């Protein structure tokens, strides 16, 4: 094995965009699933609170806070099995877009900078003969 010293001249913007998109999607899916679960939990909690407050005060549920959104809150609470994955995918796609742009921007900034990283590459023994032939 032969060690060859050099510098990293450029980073692929397309590959950096793709890597950033995958990382952003993965983080977005986790954050979206947590946000969707909290949304469904909040909807169920508000419905329970309205029911208890309506019985305690003897007031129509429409007059209570979030009274106009009872149907939407019931739908969110009842279709939790669809709301949580949908919010996970939606936030994941947004995270993929943001992560991809950040990855591409960092690659472009590295390519424009005057300082580049030093690298050491190991070449197999047969590569010495190929290098000598290429230099002639």
**Which series of helices and strands comes N to C?**
EHHHEH
Strand order within the widest sheet?
Answer: 1-2
Can you count the beta strands? 2
Rounded average pLDDT? 90
Strand content: 5-15%
Share of residues in helices: over 70%
Instruction: Give the CA-CA distance, first to last residue.
Output: 22 Å
- How is the biggest beta sheet arranged? 2 strands, antiparallel
Low-confidence stretches: none
Classification by helices and strands: mainly alpha
Domain count: the total is 1
Q: Specify the overall morphology.
A: rod-shaped
Give the helix tally. 4
Rg (C-alpha, Å): 28 Å
Structural overview:
The protein has 136 residues and is mainly α. Helices cover 71% and strands 9% of the residues. Helix 1 packs across helix 2 and helix 1 runs antiparallel to helix 3. It has helices spanning 13-57, 70-78, 80-112, 126-135; strands at 2-7, 118-123. The radius of gyration is 28 Å and the shape is rod-shaped.
Quick gist of this model?
The chain has helices at residues 13-57, 70-78, 80-112, 126-135; strands at residues 2-7, 118-123.
Properties at a glance:
9% strand, mainly alpha, two-stranded antiparallel sheet, 4 helices, 71% helix, 136 residues, rod-shaped
Show the helix and strand layout.
Layout: E1 2-7, H1 13-57, H2 70-78, H3 80-112, E2 118-123, H4 126-135
Helix pairs in contact: 1-2, 1-3
């Amino acid at each position: 094995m032969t060690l060859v010293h050099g510098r990293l001249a450029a980073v692929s913007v397309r590959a950096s965009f793709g890597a950033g998109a995958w990382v952003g999607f993965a983080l977005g899916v986790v954050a979206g699933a947590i946000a969707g679960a909290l949304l469904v939990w909040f909807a169920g909690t508000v419905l329970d609170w309205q029911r208890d407050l309506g019985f305690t005060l003897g007031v129509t549920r429409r007059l209570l806070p979030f009274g106009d959104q009872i149907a939407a809150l019931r739908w969110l609470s009842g279709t939790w099995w669809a709301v949580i994955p949908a919010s996970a995918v939606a936030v994941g796609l947004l995270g993929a877009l943001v992560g991809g742009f950040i990855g591409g921007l960092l690659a472009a900034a590295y390519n424009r900078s005057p300082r580049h990283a030093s690298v050491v590459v190991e070449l197999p023994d047969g590569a010495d003969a190929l290098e000598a032939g290429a230099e002639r």
